[in-house]
Amino acid sequence: MNEAINKLERKFGKYAIKNISLYLVMLYAAAYVVIALDVSLLNYVSLNPYAIMYGQIWRLFTWIMIPPSINISFFTLLLLYIFYNFGTSLERTIGAFRYNLYLLSGMIFTLIGALVLMAYLFISVPELASLGHDERMMIFSSVAMSFSTFYVYMSIFLALAVVIPDMTIMLMFILPVKMKYIAIIYGFIMVLEFLGSNMYNRIVLIASMLNFLIFFLITRTKTISPKQVIRRAAYNTEIKKMKAVARHQCATCGVTGEEAPEREFRYCSKCDGNYEYCDRHLYTHSHIVKNTDKDSMS
User: Fold this and answer.
1) For residue 164, with 0-12 CB atoms within 10 Å meaning exposed, 13-18 middle and 19 or more buried, which class applies?
2) Does residue 192 register a pLDDT over 60?
3) Strands 276-278, 265-267: parallel, antiparallel or unpaired by DSSP?
4) What are phi and psi of 286, to 5 degrees?
5) What is the mean pLDDT of the chain?
6) In this structure, which of 22, 94, 160, 293 has its CB flanked by the most CB atoms within 10 Å?
């Protein structure tokens, strides 16, 4: 599985959205603007599988903006703050591509879960088949509001606890606790919630958390300490500096290797100093000779 992900990263890694957590929080902000205008507008963007089957394709994407709570409170803002921080930390640890893939898989599994739930309701409640189109649309509109990115985003916390179990956070901004202990408590709560729920809520929960279960199976033996995260960040910074230093640029025309990758660049041994030229000006430039009045021509 890891090898397959590595191949995908080599091929599509350049398309990964960096700092995607910030954009998702901005989507939540847009949703709260919609709620302030008219909360009923959320019914037109929710993950309604029945409506999707009847051509409302935009719901495949717009449900992502539905916040975990329609009421703006201190705890809602705190949740968004925690999501942004944990999401950014996980992205820095596993890379932008894998983090994008992790979120995407969680959302795809949630979409599949919505379709499974629709099939389950039609099977378990035969009376649905005898209802009219508008009545079924209303029923599934209420069902759709149960699907949000809340559990997907909470799975970010669990994934971070798997990768960096010894990372310390300040619980309630006061008590220092390691991530692995909080994750164990949260996992226990999730199990109790699953056991105490009906089949309807179990489908929602499993669909939203399936990406974490797969992630855990892949990375369960690959933990990282906080010191390793710091060293990795420092290493990436040094690599970027080295690439910046190694940037090729012609001293005559100013073209760079990024602008013209097909050109070759060489240093001139006859110039005083480290002057680099592209293949078009390597033999035609005026040599730079210091402490002389005239430059010799090549």
Assistant:
1) buried
2) yes
3) antiparallel
4) -85, 125
5) 80
6) 160
